[in-house]
Amino acid sequence: MEIESSKGLRKNFGHLKCFGFIGGEPLFCIGPHWPFFLCLFTFLLIIGLFFICFVSPSISSSNTIIGVSVFCFLLINFLMAALINPGIEMRTVRDEDLEPDEPDNFCSICEVYKSNMTEHCDDCGVCVQEYDHHCPWTGKCIGRGNINFFYSFLFGLLICFLYCIVTMAMTIQEK
Ligand SMILES: [Zn+2]
Ligand SMILES: [Zn+2]
């Protein structure tokens, strides 16, 4: 006789569509605001391609290499922030250290016990560990799982902006 796992793998958590499971935890999640992500990603990609294909080649090949690098850095980090599991809280067992009469921080929507710094997001419909904020531009929450990619994305925005300004200034100077 075989004992089968009663639940199997859940595909969705709250309003997040999840795929790629490791040990029952999803590796990737797509948030409810994914169209915002798609718009901004396409917009940044078009700006990057415009500079790399049309502006930069008239300056120097090293400028093109820098352009490819900074835009790849930006887009990869943006993609990772938007795809990777933000840190969905999965704890279904009450903390053993808690006294029986202590409040246990139970989320009745997700039916999980929240750890310290875990917050429930109404947009995503899940509890997120080390919740930072809900970011429509990545389509979902920023939490423990994707906050480093999110900060790298912000840093990428800054260096891409500087790259575009410098490249435009060099183009104007050469004319
Ligand atoms: Zn919750
Ligand atoms: Zn959220």
Automatic annotation (TrEMBL):
Keyword Ligase: no
GO molecular function, one term: protein-cysteine S-palmitoyltransferase activity
The enzyme's E.C. designation: 2.3.1.225
Membrane topology, record value: Multi-pass membrane protein
Subcellular location, principal: membrane
Subcellular compartments: Membrane
Membrane spanning residue stretches: 36-59, 65-84, 149-172
Catalytic activity: L-cysteinyl-[protein] + hexadecanoyl-CoA = S-hexadecanoyl-L-cysteinyl-[protein] + CoA
Coiled coil: none
Domain of life of the source: Eukaryota
Presence of keyword Transmembrane: yes
Matching Pfam families: DHHC
Keywords: Acyltransferase, Membrane, Transferase, Transmembrane, Transmembrane helix
One GO CC annotation: endoplasmic reticulum
Domain Palmitoyltransferase DHHC: 103-173
Domain notes: The DHHC domain is required for palmitoyltransferase activity.
Similarity comment text for this entry: Belongs to the DHHC palmitoyltransferase family. PFA5 subfamily.
PANTHER family named in the record: PALMITOYLTRANSFERASE ZDHHC6, ZINC FINGER DHHC DOMAIN CONTAINING PROTEIN
Annotated protein name in UniProt: Palmitoyltransferase
Organism whose genome encodes this protein: Stentor coeruleus
